[in-house]
Design brief:
Length: 377
């Protein structure tokens, strides 16, 4: 069955600016049917790693918050902590990064709540009973919210080819343990050369899975549940994730996690993709390379698969900009992708089949790849 994806471009006039168009887009996509007065609405986005500048502009979020508040509901902005030790690894640092990137109450007029708590352990197990997982582990405050709005920056991604709604939800709402579930099927490993035997990881491992031997940390894989805490607490960066998951399996796991989140929000969710500054890499990186195509617009839908399919199609229909990583001469490791209709994501990541993410998501009932694109005037 075909789903509807609503679309606005970035054209604006004195009479109708872009923020007014954004308000109209959300209304057209059915916001008022999805949330009610006094409900707590989780607006899930990526606050951007420090050093990255491609993430969604805070002023756009202010409009989204304003439109949600106009229904009488109570929105808050949220994201879950990262698995790796960056600038968003635990709630205090995550909140500081969000504020430094402009997501402050004085700008947004909504509070920030880190979905999986202080250390990424505040999680809720949600049953999915799919190929890879019986249960998925989601940041509890997302589960506790009455309604859910995913606001994703649509761009390229090193592991999934592109990153949009499915990734914003599947990976983005997972607790640290949930993120580990998707990236690896084995315990993290200790780089012995880097370990100074300080014992910090031992003190933080709730499973007593780490011990010191000969002044070096060792992990007992039988006891480890993959919570990732030791990765974050080690200041020497000695505990490392074993990124051993094959790309198709990673995509399938991510889709199952997204299904887990959305099964708790039936009829209570809305998805928005910003297709601007389409950088080749994730907003998790502490930098962003030049956008692959010109700014295209914003799409909104109640179908998380249709919105991503429509976004990929819009990017691939556009011609590539000059002076991007796609401008490098074709050669080994470089695919097509420059012209209108060419696959930009395969151009950047020739070995990643981004379509698998959509195929699997559709196969588990997350949504439909068939869609009708409806411009909102
Ligand atoms: S925290 Fe890091 S450096 Fe300290 S014992 Fe654990 S692995 Fe080694
Ligand atoms: S991942 Fe969690 S359970 Fe496993 S060793 Fe590290 S802290 Fe312990």
């Amino acid at each position: 069955m075909s789903s509807t994806v609503y679309f606005i471009d970035f054209r604006a006039t004195y009479k109708k600016n872009f923020l007014a168009k954004l308000d109209g887009l959300m209304t057209a996509a059915g916001l008022n049917d999805r949330i009610k007065k006094r409900e707590l609405v989780a607006i899930k986005l990526h606050f951007g790693e420090l050093g990255n500048t491609a993430f969604i502009r805070p002023v756009y979020l202010r409009q989204i918050v304003k439109t949600v508040k106009a229904t009488g509901a109570l929105p808050f902005l949220t994201d879950a902590n990262t698995l790796y030790a960056g600038t968003r690894g635990h709630a205090p640092q995550h909140l500081v990064t969000a504020i430094q990137n402009g997501f402050d109450y004085s700008v947004i007029e909504a509070p920030l709540v880190i979905a999986d708590g202080l250390r990424g352990r505040t999680e809720t197990a949600v049953p999915v009973n799919k190929k890879w997982f019986k249960n998925v582990f989601i940041g509890s405050e997302i589960i506790n919210a009455d309604a859910f709005i995913s606001v994703a920056h649509f761009k390229g991604h090193e592991l999934s080819g592109y990153g949009g709604t499915i990734k914003n939800i599947g990976m983005g709402c997972a607790s640290r343990r949930g993120k580990m579930d998707q990236h690896s099927n084995v315990a993290p490993k200790v780089k012995k050369k880097k370990c100074i035997g300080c014992g910090e990881c031992v003190a933080h491992c709730a499973q007593h899975a780490i011990f010191l031997k000969d002044k070096k940390a060792h992990i007992d894989p039988e006891k480890c549940i993959g919570c990732g805490e030791c990765i974050i607490v080690c200041e020497q960066n000695a505990v490392q994730i074993q990124w051993n998951q094959s790309v198709p399996v990673f995509m399938e796991k991510m889709a199952e996690y997204a299904k887990g989140v959305l099964d708790t929000k039936t009829g209570k969710s809305l998805f928005i993709n910003f297709i601007n500054h389409v950088s080749p890499g994730c907003d998790c990186l502490p930098y962003n390379d030049a956008p692959l195509v010109g700014d295209i617009g914003v799409v909104a839908s109640t179908d998380p698969v249709a919105i991503d399919q429509a976004s990929v199609d819009l990017v691939n229909k556009a011609p590539a900009l000059h002076h991007t990583c796609l401008s490098a001469p074709a050669g080994p490791g470089k695919g097509p992708g420059k012209g209108p209709g060419e696959d930009k994501f395969k151009g950047v990541y020739p070995h990643i089949d981004w379509e698998h993410q959509l195929e699997y998501a559709e196969s588990i009932g997350l949504g439909s790849r068939e869609y009708a694109l409806v411009p909102v005037e």
